[in-house]
Write a structure and sequence with these properties.
The complex is a heterodimer of chains A (about 80) and B (about 260).
Chain A lengths: L1 H26 L5 H28 L3 H18 L2
Chain B lengths: L1 H15 L4 H10 L5 H25 L5 H22 L4 H20 L15 E5 L4 E5 L4 H18 L4 H11 L4 H25 L5 H24 L2 H24 L1
Antiparallel strand pairs in B: 1-2
Helix pairs in contact in B: 1-2, 1-9, 2-3, 2-10, 3-8, 3-9, 4-6, 4-8, 5-10, 6-7, 7-8
The chains are: A mainly alpha (about 80), B mainly alpha (about 260).
Chain lengths: ~80, ~260
């Protein structure tokens, strides 16, 4: 769980950095809009990473029902990407 | 301006326990004159960013009830995704009107907010967490999970449709209906709000409604505001702050309803 907390923190700062680079590059006239899009994507994927880690955690603890619920939730979230 | 909006939303969260979306969406729609779908999209991504930071901290402190969070989140996310598909299709004036009515409900609810319930149980209870302030382990059980799933689904729908986190609904349910202690209820709600908002945000992202520069400033403002909120909370009178924010919410609600029909 401590590792998960670390991953969430790092992911957050990475996304903010990417958004900031996107903003500054736009401000000085070099339009790297993709940096902003990447920043948003990193931010939106972090909750999916969290659910994935929970699914693994429950599988490791052999809690079948909880791991199934986590996997279904993950499928819903990933499925939403392709709708 | 987006930075200031982020600060104010976060201060409101720290002082009154209301989520960022309730402040961010009307502020962006009224002050920056953004179309509703853009305001909702920016609000949702900002909610994800603040939720990620808070969840990272709460996971470390073992405050989140993962069992309840996961069970509620499945239906909540499905309803949020469905609502966001509706929101990108409907007229923005209708969204404004619905948001205005929702704000009036929130203002009333904030004014008449029920007291936090003491939910501790005996040591035989299934769940527990360590409260550093009381310096002891608090034990608790979960009651009425089915009712919570139903009401949480409504919160998910509102989240996807209006760009609010839904914490204003989830925390009282977890505390009042499920008898989960307030600290765990808040932490679990923060985690759920982030997943719900991310699920809904993908729909807005695909339709190009997210404005990254605004997300950057509202998120940074929200982080700065959370520290400022804790500082103010120690000094300001809670009742005065509550009355001011209720007034602001009623004003924003009337402004949005009027703009929807004029």
């Amino acid at each position: 769980m401590k590792r998960l907390s670390f991953i969430l923190d790092i992911g957050f700062y990475l996304s903010m950095l990417s958004l900031a680079v996107g903003f500054i590059s736009g401000y000085i006239g070099i339009d790297y809009y993709d940096f902003s899009r990447v920043g948003i994507l990193i931010l939106l994927i972090l909750p999916l990473v969290f659910v994935f880690a929970l699914a693994l955690f429950f599988m490791y603890k052999k809690e079948l029902v909880k791991s199934i619920v986590a996997v279904i939730l993950l499928c819903v979230l990933i499925g939403n990407l392709f709708l | 301006m987006a930075f200031v909006v982020g600060i104010i939303s976060s201060i409101a969260g720290a002082l009154l326990g209301i989520g960022g979306g309730i402040i961010i969406v009307p502020a962006l729609a009224i002050l920056l004159k953004l179309p509703m779908q853009n305001a909702i999209a920016v609000s949702l991504v900002t909610i994800v960013s603040t939720s990620v930071l808070v969840t990272a901290k709460n996971v470390k402190n073992n405050l989140i009830n993962m069992d309840m969070g996961l069970s509620l989140e499945l239906s909540t996310s499905i309803f949020a995704i469905a609502a966001s598909f509706i929101a990108v299709l409907i007229n923005q004036n209708l969204l404004k009107a619905v948001f205005g009515i929702f704000l009036l409900f929130v203002a009333y609810f904030m004014y008449k907010r029920p007291e936090a319930k003491n939910c501790s149980a005996s040591e035989e209870a299934k769940f527990s967490y360590f409260d550093p302030r009381m310096n002891k382990t608090v034990y608790y059980n979960i009651e009425n999970p089915k009712a919570a799933i139903a009401i949480s689904s409504v919160a998910g729908f509102l989240s996807g449709l209006l760009g609010v986190g839904g914490g204003v609904i989830k925390v009282p349910i977890l505390n009042g209906v499920c008898k989960i202690p307030m600290k765990v209820a808040s932490a679990t709600s923060s985690m759920m709000v982030g997943i719900t908002a991310a699920a809904a945000s993908f729909v807005y992202f695909r339709h190009g409604y997210i404005i990254p520069n605004l997300v950057l400033f509202t998120s940074l403002g929200a982080i700065f505001g959370s520290k400022l909120g804790l500082f103010i909370a120690k000094r300001a009178k809670n009742e005065t702050v509550k009355v001011v924010f209720v007034g602001v919410l009623i004003f924003a609600a009337l402004e949005m309803i009027l703009k929807a029909f004029l």
